[in-house]
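Support request, please re-run this one:
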Amino acid sequence: MKDALYGGVNAAVLTPMHADLTPDIARMADHARWLLANGCTGLGLLGTTGEAASFGLHERRAILEGLIAAGIPAAKLMPGTGCASLGDTVELTRHARDMGCPGVLMLPPFYYKAPSDDGLFAYFSAVIERVGPGIKIYLYHFPQQSAVPFSLDLIDRLLTAFPDTIKGVKDSSGDYANMLAMVERFAARGFEVYTGSDEYLQQILAAGGAGCITAASNANCQYGGIVYAKRTGPEADAAQAKMTATRRAATSVPLIPGLRQVIAHARGDDAWLTIRPPHLPLSAEQAKTVIAAWEAAGALPLPGLDGLAKAAE
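Re-run finished. Output below.
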């Protein structure tokens, strides 16, 4: 897809924390700079991997403001703004717009289960009307986590009603057939489809999708960058194989603490292991498992960070 706002590789960025569990903006900004220098075209903040649901409204605003103040370009950021509360969703979306972000990633209201498409259409209509113009909305389809899927008919209805606002989707369902159906039905209308699954990047690009927004891109973005640039051929195929292998490595243990373990290891910085409950750090055995899996995939050390871990030792 040409001219996609976030076309390419977007990391679902981890949120480092201080020992008191407050957000560590300096570490996060440093990681964001590394991601943008190593294959990422954009950064998804405060999504599932960023533990958004563990942060309050004011913390989420402060994280976005802190990163931009640290020099991370607002134009590269896609903050997650979807909350169970309509009011909080509106406030966070307005804030992202006012800070200069082109778009936001929006979960459906996820507390009340099995809402009708009519109910979801009413919710998004209310959000869009209250936020006003100037920001694009990307729908976050992750039914395993939210238990509230976006049907194709609902997307069609939203896109028809709000063609200047509804811009795309992140599909984290793991169902490639669903991703492909979104591309085939909506891409011609400028709707950007991003896979949330690393293993499908090459396929979705070939089908007319816009790229990926993935958790493992926190540490495998260099390969995603090659796939996005080359698309086909031996180099792209090898890079896609690395993406698939690293995704499997990332899911060999609980995903979020596992990725923190990989970054801590690569940077020689155990502060990355701090995580808000109910998530917990990995056990010693799990830590060995995930590092061994990334090493077996040939993805460690990370480019530009290998010297840091050695220095820390």
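Residues 141 and 150 are 6 Å apart (CA to CA). The chain has one domain: 8-233.
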